[in-house]
Amino acid sequence: MIGPWRGRSSAFTTGDFVTARNRRCSRRRSQQSLKSKRSYPHVEPSVKSQAKLRDKVREVLEVRSRNQPAVAMVRKVNQITRGWATAFHYGNSTHVFSKQQVFVRNRLRRWLWRKYSRTHGLFEFFTDDRLHGQYKLWHWPLTAAWKQ
Question: Percent of the chain scored above 90 by pLDDT?
Answer without folding.
Answer: 51
